[in-house]
Amino acid sequence: MRSSRRSAVPASTTARSNGARSLWLAGLVAVLASLLMLSVTVGTREVAWADITAALFGKVDDIGQAAVAVRVPRTVLALLAGAALGLAGAIMQGVTRNPLADPGILGVNMGASLAVVIGVAWFDIASAEAYIWVAVLGAGCSAVFVYTIGSLGRGGATPLKLALAGAATSVAFSSMVIAVVLPRADIAGGIRSWQIGGVGGATFERILPVLPFLAVGFAISLLSARKLNSLALGDEMAAGLGERVAVARAVAALGAILLCGATTAICGPIGFLGLVVPHLCRLLVGVDHRWLLPFSAIAGACLLLAADVVGRVLARPAELDVGIVTALIGAPFFIWIVRRQRVREL
Prior knowledge:
CATH architecture: Orthogonal Bundle
Radius of gyration: 21 Å
Helix content: over 70%
């Protein structure tokens, strides 16, 4: 009797927990739907609902409809990029067991940026596919480099050592980007604008080549949820459960690298989103990656859409790129985590 009562308690607790998570998920999806509508309707030009409806059905007969037609691919790109960066941040924090892990802080985004800049300046790459492949390669090399540097010395790859290695690598790669661009006045303006990070000027022709990379990255990342739960128990415990630790970590990292590289290629480096989103989602759903990863993807899309809308409203009639808005949000959050959290491991 006692054993059956004990077994029933965890089951009921799990049911209540999953019910609460489902409610949070429904609320987050509702927020996402609202932000999608705001992103299409809000901008530097006021448009009527009739123009919005007409533009969504493909009409561009006047300026209002043309404005909405431009916002639609921008909204789609913000949705995809935000989901990719939010999910990549959760994956990186799970793989490294580092609460400070983020595609920007660990130097992954800047590695992708440096690779793209070198490709443009030295090899004259121009196609969207070339941009994406080069960015993914740069992101992967940067991730391996930072992890190797952070693993040196006593204690292996501790969260603090990884954060310091990533920060130093980001600064070094940023300086190298400037060194590569300075002699090339013909590409300097475009590179500087791209480096800020933004979704302005998006078109479906630019988005289509990146979709296969994002699809593979999303699939690999979401399928890694159970393995990340095992890794969270520690390498020895995960190995005792039959998990191949190195393979699990490498596969999950590959998903994050694909997401970061593809997003950076089309949007430029957007920082701090991958840091903020997973922490907020853990407050809602806990540390179970089966819930945390999809929540991080949806919340990342919400945050980037909101940042894009805020950037349009604050700087009217001009715009603030989302990279600036996310930095304004993320930098204080990063300082708070460093000061208030135990940054040893997750």
